[in-house]
Each structure stands twice: as structure tokens, then as C-alpha cells.
Write a sequence for this structure.
């Protein structure tokens, strides 16, 4: 029986607190079902978000999200100064609307990629499958920070302060290289923490490391230029470099990092080297000093550029983070790239590159052509966040937290997966590598894990040509200890099942 309160209609909603479906989505489903079943007829006024939240004892934000989705899909409509009402015409009604006899003919569907330029065809064909877009943190998705421990209250306070007293440069166009006080903070941080030789004028603020790689490819590569690519290596960089028309040369990685001798043998006249020397992605090796000097010497002789992607070097659990390759460069041929996606939160979409002095103007122009500049409010808030010491404190806190979680992941894996999968500790990073026994294929485990809502990536996703270990990546930074335990137990079942299936197949 419907209950009337304050002139608006309340329904007996039913929520499942143990469901994996978010609460706002459950509320959306309940209201949508009531509308489609006629329990809420066209023109019926819905409760205010505050009244319904109080009635159901849930967050008002949850109700707002549900209402926003209903409004977006056309099930309800808002009337200014009056409230929210069930729409007079529902989306389902439109789906079954008769088609006029003289309706406009359906346009001819062109094949995928029709009309693209040669560069456009390359862009459209680049592999972005390994980026993996998910709305929530799942075990064991790698490379995602723990957002529950980010000091959003501090960030929000800084945002509010600047909106209340918004300077003119917040509302208009700004310098394409970025907000200068932020560039000063980044330069000071890099000099102290990473041994990078730079001034604020060399910092170019970009929309994450992906844009930095793309800008470098646009400025420094011509079609068919050779590029050394770590194998295995970061697929996002691979896509950006391929899209520029470059010819990728896979160079193997061993215990000392990129095999420079192999790279010279395969492409002695390469134009660019893409490298993650501090903590190689995804293997986790650190490039030795010998290899670094060897690479710098060859680059000086050949005139090659080096893109040093220092994506998560802040998270080193044994000693201080290693100094950068750029700090050893004496000829200005290293372009250093960093991001705040791993240290703060991915949605911020702020990163930076350190350009050699003679390329600053070129990178600034390329940044302006790409999308003018990054959002000014985000840059201003980040500048204050760093200047007031919040960034350094946050890094220290997360480093301790991630170290604990890595140790706990190893402990749980040792208990549940001994004999099936071997995990070794790492001195740094945001993921570990689990090597499977010979009876189980990493690709099979990854596919079956996805069906159980576990994000387990096979090492083969990151390889180009080199033989890859039969291994999987296990991220641990964005999930709690309870989620690690539950995920490891589920993974143990999956690996055991896959192993038994392989054994039974061999016996038959």
C-alpha cells in the first residue's frame, strides 16, 4: 500500500545491502520498475531528494544519483520551482512509435574506418584493449591508487577558497605550458625527490603521461622512424608511438633493464627510445647504472631521444626512490615524463614533462595546438596542495599503506596458492607478478577471473615479440586487506580449476 507524505508519494523500496549493485542503481531500478508497471503514473510528483533520503535512511547523494539517471534517460522530468515528475512520454513509448510512411530513409552504413586518412587508420587500429576501463576498484587491477585514503576534504577546501575568490586567470585562457606556480612546485619536487636537473621554465603541464608521449611523438618522429620499445612494455606508449607512424623495434628486458646492446643491433639509427628505467613496466626491474650510461653514450653518438616515463617511482619500499636517467644526461636528450594519476587520482588528468631547454618553445606550441591548456582550477589547487606540504605527506602515507598491502598479498598468496602460483616481493611499484606453473596458461586464468569480477592481466598483453613468462599481474594498491583475502581465495579456485582441466585434457 502506497504511503503519502507531505503531498508526495513514497513506495516500499527494497534494498540488498550485500549486492554488488550500487545503492543508487538499486533505487533507480525500483523507481523505473514502478513507473513501467504503472504504480507511478505520468505526471506523478516524486519526493524531493532530501525527503526521500530521510524516509529511506540513505545518503542524499545516493538519491540524487538515481534521480539524475532517471532524468537522463527520460523517465522523469524536472519542473523549475516545482519538483520532479514522472514523464508524460516514456522512452519505451518512443521505441514502439509507428514509423510514418514517408519517413526519412535510413542512411547507408559505411564500413568501419571509411574515409580515414592514413594516420587516422593507424590511430583507429591501435590496440587500446589493455587500458581496461572500470568504474570501481576491483581486485587485482594494477596501477590504481587507493582513493579512500586521499585527503579530499583538504582538496575540496582549497577548491572552495579559490572559487570564492576566483582570480581572473582562473576564468580565462592561460599559458599553454601550465600555471607557473605549479611548474615551480613540480620543478622543486623533481630536483629534491628524483634528481632531475630542471628549472620551472622546462616544465610543461599536460593531461597525463599519455599526452606527454603523444606530444613527443608528434614533435620528434617522422613516419617510418624507428623507435625502441621495451618488450614487454606499456601498451599505452606503444599505441601513441604507433599512431605517429613510427616503426616499433621491440627490445628485450632482462634483470638489468633494457638490453641496450640488443637495441643497437636491431636498430642502430633509432630516433626515440621509450623507457621506464626506475621501475620497468610490467616486469619491475630497475635499470642498472652500467646500462644507463651505455644508453646515454649511444644516444649522444646517434642523436636519439629518450622518453623516460617515471610513472610510479614514488612508491619505493626499500630505501629512497632511485635518481632519474635524466639526472645523468649531460647532452639534453632525455625528455622526462611524470604523472599525478598514480600519486593522487586518475581523474585529475594532470601530468608533466621536462623538456630540454632548446625544445621548451616547441613543446609549448604543441601543447597549445593540442588543447590549449589543462583546467586552471585543478592546476591552482594542485599548486597549493604541494606548496602546503599535503602532497609529500600523502606520498609518505600511501607508501607505508602500499608496503603493508604488498606484504599481505604475498602472505595470502603463500597460504592459498602454494604450488599453483609463485609471487616474489618487489622493492617498488603498485603490482606484483605471479608466475604460474607449467600446467596452467595465464591467458586462461585471466579470462576465467574476468567472469568472477577479478581483474587479472596476463603478461602476454604487454609483449610484442619477446618470449614472455607464463605470469599474471596482481595489483594491490586500490583494495583493502579484506578484498585481497577474498580475491586470493577466488583466484586459488580459478587456478586450481584451470590446472585440473589442463591435467584432465592431457590424460585423455
Amino acid at each position: 500500500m502506497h504511503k503519502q507524505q507531505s503531498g508526495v508519494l513514497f513506495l516500499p523500496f527494497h534494498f540488498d545491502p550485500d549486492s554488488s549493485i550500487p545503492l543508487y542503481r538499486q533505487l533507480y531500478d525500483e523507481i523505473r520498475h514502478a513507473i513501467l508497471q504503472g504504480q507511478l503514473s505520468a505526471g506523478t510528483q516524486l519526493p524531493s531528494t532530501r525527503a526521500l533520503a530521510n524516509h529511506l535512511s540513505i545518503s542524499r547523494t545516493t538519491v540524487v544519483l538515481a534521480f539524475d539517471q532517471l532524468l537522463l534517460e527520460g523517465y522523469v522530468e524536472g519542473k523549475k520551482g516545482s519538483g520532479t515528475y514522472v514523464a508524460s512520454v516514456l522512452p519505451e513509448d518512443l521505441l514502439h512509435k509507428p514509423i510514418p510512411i514517408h519517413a526519412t530513409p535510413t542512411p547507408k552504413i559505411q564500413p568501419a574506418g571509411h574515409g580515414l586518412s592514413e594516420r587516422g587508420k593507424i590511430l583507429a587500429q591501435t590496440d587500446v584493449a589493455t587500458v581496461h576501463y572500470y568504474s570501481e576498484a576491483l581486485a587485482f587491477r594494477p596501477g590504481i591508487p587507493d582513493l579512500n585514503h586521499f585527503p579530499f576534504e583538504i582538496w575540496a577546501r582549497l577548491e572552495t577558497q579559490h572559487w570564492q575568490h576566483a582570480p581572473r586567470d582562473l576564468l580565462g585562457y592561460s599559458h599553454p605550458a601550465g600555471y607557473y606556480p605549479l611548474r615551480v612546485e613540480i620543478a622543486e619536487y623533481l630536483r629534491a625527490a628524483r634528481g632531475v636537473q630542471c628549472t620551472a621554465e622546462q616544465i610543461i603541464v599536460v593531461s597525463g603521461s599519455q599526452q606527454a608521449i603523444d606530444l613527443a611523438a608528434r614533435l620528434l618522429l617522422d613516419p617510418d622512424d624507428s623507435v625502441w620499445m621495451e618488450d614487454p612494455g606499456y601498451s599505452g606508449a606503444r599505441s601513441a608511438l604507433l599512431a605517429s607512424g613510427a616503426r616499433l623495434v621491440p627490445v628485450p628486458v632482462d634483470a638489468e633493464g633494457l638490453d641496450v646492446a640488443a637495441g643497437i643491433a636491431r636498430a642502430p639509427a633509432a630516433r626515440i627510445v621509450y623507457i621506464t628505467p626506475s621501475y620497468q613496466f610490467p616486469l619491475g626491474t630497475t635499470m642498472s647504472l652500467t646500462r644507463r650510461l651505455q644508453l646515454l653514450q649511444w644516444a649522444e653518438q646517434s642523436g636519439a631521444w629518450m622518453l623516460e616515463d617515471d610513472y610510479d617511482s614514488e612508491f619505493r619500499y626499500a630505501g629512497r626512490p632511485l635518481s632519474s636517467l635524466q639526472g645523468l644526461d649531460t647532452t639534453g636528450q632525455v625528455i622526462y615524463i611524470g604523472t599525478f594519476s598514480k600519486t593522487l587520482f586518475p581523474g585529475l588528468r594532470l601530468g608533466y614533462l621536462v623538456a630540454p631547454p632548446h625544445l621548451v618553445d616547441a613543446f609549448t606550441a604543441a601543447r597549445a595546438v593540442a588543447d590549449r591548456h589543462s583546467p586552471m582550477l585543478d592546476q591552482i589547487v594542485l599548486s597549493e596542495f604541494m606548496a602546503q606540504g599535503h602532497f609529500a605527506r600523502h606520498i609518505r602515507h600511501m607508501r607505508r599503506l602500499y608496503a603493508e598491502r604488498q606484504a599481505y598479498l604475498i602472505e595470502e598468496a603463500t597460504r592459498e596458492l602454494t604450488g599453483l602460483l609463485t609471487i616474489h616481493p618487489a622493492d617498488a611499484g603498485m603490482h606484483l607478478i605471479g608466475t604460474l606453473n607449467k600446467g596452467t596458461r595465464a591467458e586462461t586464468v585471466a579470462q576465467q577471473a574476468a567472469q568472477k569480477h577479478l581483474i587479472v592481466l596476463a603478461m602476454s598483453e604487454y609483449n610484442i615479440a619477446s618470449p614472455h613468462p607464463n605470469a599474471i599481474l596482481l595489483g594491490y594498491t586500490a583494495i583493502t586487506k579484506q578484498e585481497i583475502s577474498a580475491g586470493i581465495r577466488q583466484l586459488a579456485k580459478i587456478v586450481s580449476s584451470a590446472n585440473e582441466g589442463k591435467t584432465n585434457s592431457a590424460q585423455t
